[in-house]
TrEMBL record:
Domain HTH marR-type: 1-143
Transcription regulation listed as a keyword: yes
Protein name: DNA-binding MarR family transcriptional regulator
Keywords for this protein: DNA-binding, Transcription, Transcription regulation
Listed transmembrane segments: none
A single GO molecular function term of this UniProt record: DNA binding
Alphabetized InterPro entries for the sequence: HTH-type_Bedaq_tolerance (IPR052526), HTH_MarR-typ (IPR000835), Tscrpt_reg_MarR-type_CS (IPR023187), WH-like_DNA-bd_sf (IPR036388), WH_DNA-bd_sf (IPR036390)
Keyword check for Transport: no
Taxonomic placement: Bacteria, Bacillati, Actinomycetota, Actinomycetes, Streptosporangiales
Length: 155
């Protein structure tokens, strides 16, 4: 599938493959504190969204209720998250990052910045400029995907 008008046509199939390959690399960039993908995803979701209900995490993490409950229990046991009463509904519980959980997210981000910076430093100016120009467009894709119900929508 190609889209676009004007200068360059965008091959969405090629873009998808490149993003998948980049994500595989990017997930593995940090050399600090190795955790499973699902654990890290929950920590990163909580760092960006703040305290979140378990039911909301089942949606964002695409896990079943028993799986997310078990995962949160492990993260809680490891001191990375805590459960709190939901102030808007006394029957519900919110999952929140602890200081230790926030430190894991911060350390992994800092390590990724360093490692990605090293890789980008080996590129030529034109390639670095192309990446810099793509950041606003990629941010917009994220906004479109996360607004409304677009994140989990099948085409």
């Amino acid at each position: 599938m190609e889209t676009g008008t004007g200068g360059q046509r965008l091959n969405v199939d090629e873009l998808t493959t490149v993003i998948e390959d980049f994500n595989t690399l990017f997930i593995r960039l940090p050399t600090v504190q190795q955790f499973g993908f699902s654990s890290l995803s929950v920590l990163h979701t909580l760092s960006r969204r703040g305290p979140t209900r378990l039911t909301a995490l089942t949606t964002t993490e695409q896990l079943t209720q028993p799986a997310i409950t078990s995962l949160v229990s492990r993260l809680e046991r490891d001191g990375l998250v805590e459960r709190r009463p939901d102030p808007s509904d006394g029957r519900a519980v919110l999952v929140a990052l602890t200081d230790a959980g926030a430190e894991v997210v911060r350390a992994r981000h800092a390590n990724r910045v360093t490692r990605l910076g090293q890789l980008i430093a080996d590129m030529d100016d034109e390639q670095r400029d192309a990446i810099a120009r793509s950041v606003p467009a990629l941010r917009r894709v994220i906004e479109l995907a996360t607004s409304g119900d677009n994140l989990g929508a099948d085409s």
